Amino acid sequence: MKAILLIPALTLSLVHGYAAAESILGHDWNNSAELGAISTSGNTVGTSVTGKLDAKQELPDWSNEYVLAGYFKDEQVTKADGEKVRERSAQRYSFSAKAAYKLLQDHDKLFALATHVNDKFGAYTRYSTVGVGYGTETYKTPDHSMDVEIGPGYFNGTRSTGEMESGMTVRGAANLKWKLSDTALFSQNLSVERGTSNIHSLAETALRTKINSTMQMKAAFSVRNDTNVPEDKKNTDTQTSVTLVYSF
Predict the structure, then answer these.
(1) Out of 3.30.70.20, 2.40.160.40, 3.90.1150.10, 3.40.50.450, which CATH number does the structure's domain 29-247 have?
(2) Cα-Cα end-to-end distance for the chain
(3) pLDDT tens, 65-111?
(4) Model confidence over 208-225: pLDDT tens digits?
(5) Cβ within 8 Å of residue 88, ≥6 positions away
(6) Which residues constitute the signal peptide according to the record (predicted)?
(7) Interval 102-141: pLDDT, tens
(8) Which of 4, 80, 75 has the alpha carbon at shortest distance from 44?
(9) Which residues neighbour 157 within 8 Å (Cβ) at sequence distance 6 or greater?
(10) What is the pTM of this model?
(11) What is the band of 7 on the pLDDT scale with cuts at 50, 70, 90?
(12) CA distances from 96 to 45, 71, 90, 146 (A)
């Protein structure tokens, strides 16, 4: 089996419009684009690609963030008659947008959040949420920081069986960052949404190492879990990835 790791650089151009006559020039953006791909041949034939766009904006009174992510996997399978065909075995796209209003006290915010996930092979093929809440930085040193959020929300989803679900949720989230050195950063993100019949959890553990002023290599392990899933689905999905991150 021969494996080739493909991690091409990705360039992103973002334009943010306002209803009011206000130019975005001069406002602080912190953007990143990451992409990773693995292609295998020989005894195992397949291709998987993962990518993510993350745009953050800091204004005097507002902090905004937009995240677009995608993952798919194709692999070669052998049918009962011996024919070999390529089939899609994973396909997931997600988008989230968050606007946070800065309170008078440092690092305290009130936020509104909307997310949407399409997962063709997941326990929930579609999962959308909206919510509001309060966030703050609970811990801060030169090398460590911890942000937490909590608030109510509402979800609407479609299970893989076609059954529709909706209801109120309570969401909690935490984001830990640890600066290991001038070139290495460890992060741990966790979010949990508790609804009437399901607990939906997301977690990512990642290590970033700086290549130069704009390029980083990122190794990550992510976990998605639902406590209430159809009988033919597993509760937990995991993903291990190595990507190249371009910051601008």
Answers:
(1) 2.40.160.40
(2) 37
(3) 999 999 999 988 888 887 888 888 889 999 999 999 999 877 899 99
(4) 999 998 999 999 999 999
(5) 72, 73, 74, 120
(6) 1-21
(7) 998 778 999 999 999 999 999 999 999 999 999 999 989 9
(8) 75
(9) 124, 126, 127, 128, 164, 165, 166
(10) 0.83
(11) very low
(12) 33, 15, 20, 21
The kind and range of the H/E element at 133 are strand 124-140
65 is written with which tokens? 């963030």
Buried b (16+ CB within 10 A) or exposed e, 55-94: bebeeeeebbbbbbbbbbbbeeeeeeeeeeeeeeebebeb
Residue type at 50 in one-letter notation: T
Tokens of 216: 């980083």
